[in-house]
């Protein structure tokens, strides 16, 4: 095994994407998580890192994307639905991507997507989905909690979808 490959293995998914980029390979690009044209909008209360009263008190670990109730929530990439602990969300589906990916070539690669506060789900743990497949409907509340995670040596860690290249609008500004 080459030295570059050993280094990539040692630093995980970020290393794998780094190695692919060094060899001129393209990084897999992710799609939209909701069936809405244009740049998705974050609800006024759904900003990444916003304080939450709880219980327990915590920082918002994703973004809440506005979408019409009954519209489809989409798989952003190819992967398998894995078991998820609902935590503070209602209906939750967790997608483990087949290959770490981002929304643009300079974005930080992620390997897990969390969709929460869903309406009717279409998939269960163990189901394999492809980019663009519907995984659930948007609930009556008119938003979807959307979070991205990367796997580190210490375990999974949430990050702002913006860091992975996902562009979204807030009530104040466009986050690009």
Q: Please give the number of β-strands.
A: 13
Q: H/E order of the elements?
A: HHEEEEEEEEEEEEE
Shape: globular
Low-confidence stretches: 13-25
SS content category: mainly beta
Q: How many strands, what sense, and barrel or not for the largest sheet?
A: 9 strands, antiparallel
Tally of alpha and pi helices: 2
The fraction of residues in strands falls at 35-45%
Fraction in helix:
10-25%
pLDDT averaged over residues:
83
Q: What integer value in Å does the Rg equal?
A: 16 Å
Gap between N and C termini: 38 Å
Q: What does this entry look like structurally?
A:
By secondary structure, the chain is mainly beta. Helix content is 11%, strand content 36%. It contains 2 helices and 13 strands. The protein has helices spanning 3-11, 13-22, and strands at 51-52, 58-59, 63-66, 72-74, 79-82, 91-101, 110-121, 128-129, 134-138, 143-152, 155-159, 168-169, 174-175. The strands form 3 sheets. Strands 3, 4, 5, 6, 7, 8, 9, 10 and 11 form a 9-stranded antiparallel sheet that branches. Strands 1-2 form a two-stranded antiparallel sheet. The radius of gyration is 16 Å and the shape is globular. Mean pLDDT is 83; it is low at 13-25.
Topology:
Blueprint: H1 3-11, H2 13-22, E1 51-52, E2 58-59, E3 63-66, E4 72-74, E5 79-82, E6 91-101, E7 110-121, E8 128-129, E9 134-138, E10 143-152, E11 155-159, E12 168-169, E13 174-175
Antiparallel strand pairs: 1-2, 3-10, 4-9, 5-6, 5-8, 6-7, 7-9, 7-10, 10-11, 12-13
Q: What attributes does this structure have?
A:
two-stranded antiparallel sheet, 176 residues, 2 helices, globular, mainly beta
């Amino acid at each position: 095994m080459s030295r570059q490959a050993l280094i990539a293995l040692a630093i995980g998914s970020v290393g794998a994407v780094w190695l692919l980029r060094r060899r001129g390979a393209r990084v897999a690009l992710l799609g939209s998580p909701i069936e809405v044209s244009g740049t998705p909008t974050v609800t006024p209360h759904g900003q990444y890192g916003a304080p939450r009263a709880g219980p327990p008190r915590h920082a918002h670990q994703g973004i809440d994307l506005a979408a019409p109730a009954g519209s489809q929530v989409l798989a952003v990439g190819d992967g398998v639905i894995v078991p998820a602990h609902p935590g503070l969300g209602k209906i939750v589906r967790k997608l483990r991507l087949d290959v770490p990916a981002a929304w643009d070539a300079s974005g930080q690669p992620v390997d897990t997507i969390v969709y929460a506060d869903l309406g009717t789900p279409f998939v269960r743990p163990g189901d394999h989905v492809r980019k663009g497949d519907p995984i659930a409907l948007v609930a009556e509340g008119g938003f979807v909690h959307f979070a991205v995670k990367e796997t580190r040596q210490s375990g999974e860690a949430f990050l702002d979808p913006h860091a992975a290249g996902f562009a979204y609008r807030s009530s104040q500004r466009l986050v690009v």
